[in-house]
Amino acid sequence: MRRPDSDYKIDQTQGVNFEIDYIEIEGHFHRVSYAGNENGIPVIIMMGVFEDSLNDSRWLVANMVNHPQGKSFRFITITVPFLEEYTEIKLVDSDKAKYDGLIPPNKKIKMKNSLSVDKRFDLENCAHTLRKILKWMKIKKAHFVGHDRGCIIMDNLLSEFPEMAISYSRGSQGWTNFNEEWLNLVDKGIFLGPPHRIMATRAFPSLLKSAIMGGAPFGFIAPSFSIDKFANPNNKELNDRWNAIQQMPNQSPHYFKLSRQIFRQTDFVDEGKRRSDRSRGFCILDTNFPMMQFQGSDEMLLAKDLPNSRKISLIKRILGVLGYAKVKGIFKFFRLRFPTYVFADLPDDYGIISNHLGDQPYFGKYNFWVDEVMDLLPGATYQDRKNPTWKKNYKKYVTLKESGRYSVLKLKKGSRFSRFTIISDALHWTHIERPENVAYACMDFIKDNNN
Q1: Is the pLDDT of residue 1 over 70?
Q2: What does the alpha-carbon distance between residue 54 and residue 32 come to, in Å, rounded to a whole number?
Q3: 411-424 pLDDT tens trace
Q4: At what angle are helices 149-160 and 268-275 packed, to 10 degrees?
Q5: What total of structural domains would you count in the chain?
Q6: How far apart are CA 118 and CA 258, in angstroms?
Q7: Is residue 329 part of a domain?
Q8: Long-range contacts made by residues 193-198, C-beta under 8 angstroms, separation at least 24?
Q9: Please, are residues 377 and 305 in contact by the beta-carbon 8 Å criterion?
Q10: I need a surface site. Which of 15, 151, 155, 430 has the fewest CB within 10 A?
Q11: Which residues pair with 107 in a beta bridge?
């Protein structure tokens, strides 16, 4: 493969310049970016899918560079392996999908053991690719920051090679506690964990667009971020960050073909089991490097509990079903099936959310980190900030940090984590919605463990 054209660039952000490079590993050129002190301690950053891995992390990186401790570090952002737009899919007949696909509401698409895949996209293989990239850079130890798929890749890498981590900050991704039966809760309007089997099919871009642009089947953008955007129309950086999320469902057809190669070889249930699987001779639960989890504060908030929320009007429901809304296809019927609320008078459907926000609770009976953190609301399904028990436990177990940019939730005795952080006013894409908050959370953790 010839070296890609070098017209890809990242604009200067908050006074921070980014250098783009391509690293050839086994015939593929992996795109990376550099920022900060050239001689500093390396911080390896890898974000998730459905975004431009380098461009959409620039606000987070810029805030990390500009952090009071940022001058001591070299920030290296690496694209999720093989998600560059110039990648050619290489199917091998002997390599088959590990999981079937799903098209909503319940159409199973046969893929498992029958559909050929490109094994390079397997997340364990991606972890070994990341290690090869770091070896090429002659990096033996670093701080790691991962989000979404980047987090899963780093989980695999640091499980097998824990000596590489000075510290590890992982965001918006589950842990060991997830039961396959929870997937059936969709029928009750309870959405838990990312819908990987839908992501393996052509149906997912429509679902992603409905969730981002119309809040259905559940909300995928922090309401405060939506309100901020429309209250500040002349704030260029805010608008750029908003557009970065809005453009995710509009990636090229080829990009979605690439991403489907990942989700035909991974599953949320299996990822959870692998973290506690010792059969391979290594397990992330048995490592001892400092590790932090960061999650958005708005996970599993009920739409009806949002400030100023009111039920969507019958006229809007009917117009939505008739197609006069951002929510399209099968997803427009979610507004009839599940409670839908208007939380703010925003253009189009941006002020509307069905049922609840997010999909990764850190409390209650579906707590993804039940063995790790103190429970804020035992037995609950949704976050309820007005509940007396929530209020009491929040005061008892949650500590506000950095003028409210983030909070720290108390860990249970024996927790594998060193810190559990709640990013204020954010949901899944914490690093885009509130990059300064995430930067402070990560840099404070890095600073506290930089030895």
Answers
A1: no
A2: 7
A3: 999 999 999 999 99
A4: 30
A5: 1
A6: 9
A7: no
A8: 193/268, 193/359, 193/360, 193/368, 194/268, 194/359, 195/102, 196/99, 196/263, 196/266, 196/267, 196/268, 197/99, 197/100, 197/101, 197/102, 197/263, 197/267, 198/101, 198/102, 198/103, 198/104
A9: no
A10: 15
A11: 103
In this structure, which amino acid lies at residue 168? Y
With respect to residue 421, please indicate whether it lies within any of the assigned structural domains.
yes
Query: Under the phi-then-psi rule, with left for phi > 0, alpha for psi from -120 to 50, and beta for the rest, what region is 195?
Result: beta
Task: Give the torsion through C-alpha atoms of 182, 187, 193, 197, to 10 deg.
Answer: 100
Give the domain extent around 188.
19-305+359-448
Contact 178, 196 (CB under 8 A): no
Residue 319 in this model has a pLDDT that exceeds 90: no
Q: Provide mean pLDDT across the span 233-259.
A: 97
Does residue 79 contact residue 30 with C-beta atoms inside 8 Å? yes
Torsion, Cα of 321, 326, 330, 336 (10° steps): -40
C-alpha atoms less than 13 angstroms from C-alpha of 15 in its C-beta half-sphere: 5
DSSP code at position 199: H
Tokens of 268: 């949320």
The pTM is what? 0.97
Token pair in block for residue 102: 């799903």
User: Please, are residues 221 and 354 in contact by the beta-carbon 8 Å criterion?
Assistant: no
**What is the distance between the alpha carbons of residues 44 and 134, in angstroms, rounded to a whole number?**
9
Burial (CB < 10 A; 0-12, 13-18, 19+), residue 11, is exposed
Phi and psi torsions of 282, nearest 5°? -150, 155
The pLDDT mean for the chain works out to 95
- Residues 46-87 have pLDDT tens digits of 999 999 989 999 999 999 999 999 999 999 999 999 999 999
Closest residue by Cα to residue 102 from 93, 112, 92: 112
Q: Widest CA span of the chain, in angstroms?
A: 62
CA-closest candidate to residue 387, choices 302, 281, 293, 269: 302
Burial of 423 (0-12, 13-18, 19+ CB in 10 A): buried
CATH number, domain containing residue 94: 3.40.50.1820
What percent of the chain shows pLDDT beyond 70? 99
Q: Please report whether residue 344 resides in a domain.
A: no
Q: For 108-115, which contacts have Cβ atoms below 8 Å and span 24 or more sequence positions? A: 109/200, 109/201, 111/200, 111/264, 115/264
Residue 87 φ then ψ, to 5°:
-70, 135
**Where do we find the tokens 């805010």?**
238
Count of residues in the chain: 451
CB 346 within 8 A of CB 208: no
